[in-house]
Amino acid sequence: MDRNLLLKEMRESIGTQDPIKFFEKMVDVFALLFDHIEELEVDVKKANLKAALAIQWEPKMASTMLSKMIEELREDKADYYEEISQLKKAFMEDKVTQNYNDFCQFWQEVLGWHPFLDYDK
After folding, report:
1. Is residue 52 scored above 80 in pLDDT?
2. Cα(31)–Cα(81) distance, rounded to whole angstroms?
3. How far apart are CA 82 and CA 62, in angstroms?
């Protein structure tokens, strides 16, 4: 739902429609806010991980990134069988997570983008 349209409808309902209509729209506003907050929380977690790795390379955190990417690809409706299998193998072998250059090169070869730059599927 478009937030501008929703706010316009709320303004127009004040004094002209039953208060229930206004509060129904307010519930929609809260749903939009909660969705936005959840997205921001995910972004903050990603930023915290990237910031920690930028300060000092931690293989365990890189493994966590691999694991989370596997989960994200599994949840996606597209077919990522090959990418998932490569990520799982890298996770199990724990070789590409040992240094920044190997990790970034592997990530780019498998997924096609840099692990520490924003990317929207």
Report:
1. no
2. 34
3. 20
Q: Looking at this protein, which amino acid is placed at residue 58?
A: E
**Mean pLDDT of the 6-13 span:** 86
**Taking the CB of residue 66, how many other CB atoms lie within 10 A of it?**
24
pLDDT (tens digit per residue) in 82-119: 999 999 999 999 999 999 999 999 999 999 998 887 66
Domain ranges within the chain, ordered by starting residue: 1-56, 57-121
* Euclidean distance between CA atoms 111 and 109, whole angstroms: 6
pLDDT at res. 120: 61
Helices (H) and strands (E) in the chain, counts: 5, 0
**Structure tokens that stand for 10 in this block:** 């709320």
For 4, residues 6+ apart whose C-beta sits below 8 A from its C-beta are: none
DSSP state of 78: S
**Count of C-beta atoms within a 10 Å radius of residue 59:** 15
- Predicted confidence at residue 119, as pLDDT, reads 63
Identity (one letter) of the amino acid at 99? N
